[in-house]
Amino acid sequence: MPFIEHALPDVWALPPVPDGKYRLQIWDAQEQKSRKGDDMIVVTFVIEGAPNGCCWKVRHWFVLPGKDTSAERRHWQLLDLKRFLTAFHLPVQGGEIDLSEWIGSDGSALLRQKVDKYTGQVFNRIRFPRLDAR
Question: How many domains is the chain partitioned into structurally?
Answer without folding.
Answer: 1
